[in-house]
Structure formats: C-alpha cells, structure tokens
Design brief:
335 residues, mainly alpha, flat, IFN-induced_PKR_regulator
Length: 335
C-alpha cells in the first residue's frame, strides 16, 4: 500500500481509492496474522481489524473518496505548469459550487454513500450501528434510538464537507485571486461591456501602486503610460470578435505587441508567471531529491548549490581540466 501523502491531493485521492479497494484483502491478511503463535502480532492484528471494521471508519472512507472525486480534477488542473491565475479561479469556483450543491442535498448524497458503506461493512463481517456512547437518555431514562444514517450524516459527512469547503474558500478566496488586479488586462475582461470606467480606473491605480517600481520610470509616468496603452488596448479587443479573443494569459502575452504596448506586455508576463498553487515549489523539491540523496545527506551548502546550478544550466560547458587543476591545488584531495 502506498503511503498517504500529506501535501499532494492527487496521490492522496489515489491512496484512498486503492485502500478502499484493497480493504477486504487487508482484513483477510490480518485474520491470518491473528492465528500466529506470536501473541503481540496476533493482538495488534485483532486491534487493527476492530478499527478497520468500525462503522465510523467505513463511513468516513466512503465520504472522503466521494469528496476527493470532486476535487481531483482541480488538483490535476493545478499541477499544470502553464496554468494561470484566471483559469485557476474559474476551476476553483466550479469545485466550490459543486461542493455547496452536495451540502444542500446532503440527505440524498449521503443516502447513496451510506448504502455503499453498509454493503462494504456487511462484506467485512461488521454491523452498521451507532456508537453506544452517543445514545442520549430521555426523560424516562431509556436510551434514544437514533437512526444510524442520520447520525453518520450529521457527525461525519456534513462536518467533513463543511471543513473542505471552508478550506478551499480560504485558500482561494476572491481577495487572494484578485490580489494583483492584473486580470483587467485580459481581452475578455477589458473588452467586456460590464467593465465600467470607474472599475477600470480603480484596478489601474492598484496596478500602478504595486508594480510601478518594477519599471524604469517614475510612478506618475508609469500611470500615464499605462492609461494611454490601456485605452488603445481596449479599443483593439473591442473591434475583435469574441471568438478571436485569446483564451489564457500566455496567448494574450503573445498577441501583445511589445513595441506598441511595452508596459502591458511586461505586466502580462508578470501575470503569466504568477503561480496559482504550490506545485512549482513541489517540483523544485522533487528535483532537489535527485541531487541530495540519502548517500549525500551530509554535503555542504556550497556543493549542493553547485550541483543545482549544473543541473539548471546544462547548456554551459564545464571545462573538466580546470576542475581537476582546482581540485589538485586544494588541501584536501579526497575523491
């Protein structure tokens, strides 16, 4: 069984699905271990079987597989190196709307999951029932008879769904996605009739405040140049048909003439380089693992930096003779 990944949603989803499919085989292996003469191994196997056949565990597993099936396309989309912030925002909104719809129809959605959980639990030799400690005593002193489906829906499915929805909304909030305000430069936005002059001017001022120091000009000159280019940029795309508008940031940057729109071209390149997730950083970590393996775990920072530069700048030819001469001149000649 693969380990549960704490950071990569794709691998986490695959792990849940594989674990659910292999659960009967896992139970069978644990039952064979229970027959061993080694007391500790048999006791641990029995404890694991009790945990794996617990109704709460089975229901939680079914809920996680269902929710991750909705978030998996978004995770796959966020893994793309060429994904821009605008496309990420659209996909995030679709996932949030889908999860909100599941929340509003929690009774119907969980009803199907509960039936699947009940069938799986029966195959494993368990029984779907409410944990004894949750029974509430009424005024007569007799424990209440709470429906298992109602209990697990309120205790497991709805809290998990609410937690994931809130986490996605917090990570991809409107303030976060619109923090840079550069989306106003996109043709589908700047040519939209719904974009009022006041909204355009407000976003332009926000762009000037954030990015004027990246260009070799003063803030006032940058603002005047950007406003002049933006007027021409808007007229350019208003004349174009909606089917001819670029679909993403990269295509917009290629369609932008750097000679006529130097400021907008630079801002579009900045927008295209903004990461919409941590996948780029995770890729760098994966590359680092190829350099700093377990056998090289004690290497110094200088050597690690040198190996990283060699890996990045492969087009630069290294003169091996110069490397050997420098190595021979050093006090330590360990190979």
């Amino acid at each position: 069984m693969p380990k549960l990944c704490e950071t990569r949603f794709i691998e986490r989803h695959d792990t849940y699905l594989m674990f659910r499919d292999k659960l009967p085989d896992i139970i069978q292996v644990l039952q064979e271990i229970m027959e061993w003469k080694e007391a500790k191994a048999a006791s641990d196997a029995q404890a694991l079987i009790l945990s794996l056949t617990n109704p709460s565990f089975i229901v939680t597993l079914a809920c996680m597989c269902d929710i991750f099936s909705t978030t998996l396309p978004l995770a796959n989309m966020l893994q793309k190196p060429s994904l821009d912030v605008v496309s990420a925002s659209d996909h995030v909104k679709d996932v949030i709307n889908t999860l909100d719809e599941k929340r509003r129809q929690a009774d119907e959605v969980f009803g199907v999951l509960f039936m699947e959980s009940q069938e799986m639990l029966e195959k494993l030799g368990g029984e779907m029932k409410v944990p004894p400690r949750v029974f509430r005593r009424g005024r007569s002193g007799h424990p209440g008879n709470e429906n298992p489906e109602t209990y697990f829906r309120q205790a497991i499915f709805i809290p998990i769904l609410d937690s994931i929805c809130e986490d996605i909304k917090e990570r991809f909030s409107k303030d976060t996605l619109d923090a840079y305000g550069l989306t106003v430069l996109l043709p589908k936005v700047v040519a939209s009739p719904s974009l009022t002059p006041t909204q355009r001017d407000d976003q332009t001022r926000a762009i000037v405040t954030k990015y004027w120091d990246l260009f070799s000009t003063s803030e006032r000159s940058f603002q005047q140049t950007l406003l002049g280019e933006l007027n021409l940029w808007q007229r350019k795309w208003v004349r174009s048909a909606s089917s001819d508008l670029p679909k993403d940031v990269a295509a917009t940057a290629e369609a932008c003439d750097a000679t006529m729109f130097p400021v907008i071209n630079g801002l579009l390149r900045i927008l295209a380089s903004l990461p919409s997730s941590t996948c780029s950083a995770e890729r760098s970590f994966s590359t680092l693992k190829r350099l700093k393996t377990y056998l090289r775990n004690t290497m110094t920072g200088d050597r690690l930096t040198g190996l990283a530069l060699l890996n990045i700048h492969r087009d630069i030819i290294v003169n091996t003779q110069n490397v050997l001469e420098r190595f021979l001149k050093g006090p330590r000649r360990m190979v």
